[in-house]
Amino acid sequence: MAAATPTPSVAELIERHQDTLDRALDAIKSRDYWSPYPEFPKAYGESGPADGKAAFEARLGRLFTIDGQPTSGEPVSGEASPYGIELGVSYPHGEPDALIAALEAARPGWAAATPAARAAVCLEILARINARSHEFAHAVMHTTGQAYGMAFQAGGPHAQDRGLEAVAYAYAEQTRLPASAGWTKPQGKRDPLTMVKEFTVVPRGLALLIGCNTFPTWNGYPGLFASLATGNPVLVKPHPRAVLPLALTVEIARDVLAEAGFDRNLVCLAAEHDGGTVAKVLAVRPEIKMIDYTGSTAFGDWLEENARQAQVYTEKAGLNTVVIDSTDNYRGMLSNLAFALSLYSGQMCTTPQNLLIPRGGIRTDEGSKSYDELVADLAAAIEGLLGDDARAAAVLGAVVNPGVLQRTVAAAGGEYGELALSPRVVESAEFPGATIRTPAMIKVDADKPDDRTAFMSECFGPVSFAVAVDSTEAAVELLRRSAQEQGAMTAGAYTVSDQVEAALVQACLDGGVSLSLNLTGGVYVNQTAAFSDLHGTGANPAANSAYCDGAFVANRFRTVEVRRPA
């Protein structure tokens, strides 16, 4: 009989992951590129892709069991792949009372652990998730519609980066104060006053993670690991159409916690049928002290207004804007924008929606370009990028839900305005049942009330608006006002003018939105890098927090002082 694999002690985990934690702490200070998780599929071994696919397929048509978690009633199911394959995975149902009781019972032992111990356990969870990145890629692909390459990177290593980043910030904030300190106050001729003071991190309580359909791991890991690393149990409530990636995460986390000597019910899964209301029920429970949410503005606003007992971290939606004033690389600008507008069918909270273009045209290295010429050239660049169906499918992925498809149909029918680029159906040889559409681009005028109504509302998915404005100054002001009033996750701009650049920077500072200037190469406005870029700012209505900064983790715990005479 083979010897059993020894269970890792917490001390062993701390030693195993100390270098990674140290390097992550350095990275959040330097803001340069760094990642311990390779983003290239070949880095995971020759058999990695086949093994990951086999592991994913072994889950299909079966109950996803979670040992030791309270369950009741009929299993939950309902996920459907945007690529048309049958998933048939079901998940255990848990009553809120039972799940919360289990989390509460697990809390004391985890709260008593040191920040170093909690960080090491979190890094072990991430290491095991990383080793299964190909399996996660299939799970993300078939629940979100991301193409495999994007699902592997964004749903795997890049999501893991964001989780590790949250752990690093959590550790830094928890260790900012010393565990103990001596205090001496001179009293002149009298003996000095001397005290010994101890500072203990006290976690806030139970955390609720409400997952999204489009990026369940990338958007879910920051909150999950920020709460866990600061000593709080986490109840994971996935989006009903994207349960599997977070269920796999919960499974791995529970195994690592148990092996390290903690209660596996520190992380539990709360799956529900589509259309269920368990998120609302859980969100207002007095035991829930933190909520992390990514999704619609309507429910995010509801959480902020009603879950008053909890610290609520939301990422909602806004109007992402690109101002086009001038460029010294016209073809590079067109290529960059075409990819940014096409990637994952525009189903990213960071995808540009409104392109603000002076109606008198712009200056370029190819001479002046009128509004109509620029719009036509951009439409042609998108068509060139997506002309081949196989390539288009790899860039676009599949449409994630009926709402996105309806908006595409509405755009094609002229409901939003004059079409500059018509969407078309893309066929996938590998997945004949996939729902894939190319982007639509609409020509609108900022001075027309009906047009303004269309482009000043979020139109999530592969629909963008080429907005004719009176001048660059008008575009800058519209950027400022839309960020302040509707919110924005990203802003972009193209200009060769120092004066215009200064005005754009000030507008984005006023609007609380991060700005990308003159992108013409392999960096796109809708992509951010962990350890370096902030995702959101928390300074406009689109989100009240950022991935990741000190504010994202620091209020998940408090510090309690005990002092006594020396």
Explained architecture:
By secondary structure, this protein is of the alpha/beta class. It contains 19 helices and 19 strands. It has helices spanning 10-30, 48-57, 96-112, 115-131, 133-144, 148-155, 157-174, 221-229, 244-259, 278-283, 297-306, 330-342, 371-385, 389-396, 402-412, 449-455, 472-485, 498-511, 550-554, and strands at residues 76-77, 90-91, 180-187, 190-203, 206-210, 234-237, 267-269, 288-294, 311-315, 321-324, 354-358, 362-364, 367-369, 418-421, 440-445, 463-469, 491-494, 515-517, 557-565. It has a seven-stranded mixed beta sheet with strand order 14-15-16-11-10-17-18. Strands 7-6-5-8-9 form a five-stranded parallel beta sheet, sandwiched between helices. Helix 11 links the parallel strand 8 and strand 9. The model has no long low-confidence stretch (mean pLDDT 96).
Short key terms for the protein model shown above:
alpha/beta; 566 residues; globular; 17% strand; seven-stranded mixed β-sheet
Give the count of helical stretches. 19
Sheet-strand content, in percent, reads 15-25%
CA-atom Rg in angstroms = 25 Å
Average pLDDT taken over every residue: 96
- Can you tell me the overall shape? globular
SS elements, strand count: 19
Spatial order of the strands in the main sheet?
Answer: 14-15-16-11-10-17-18
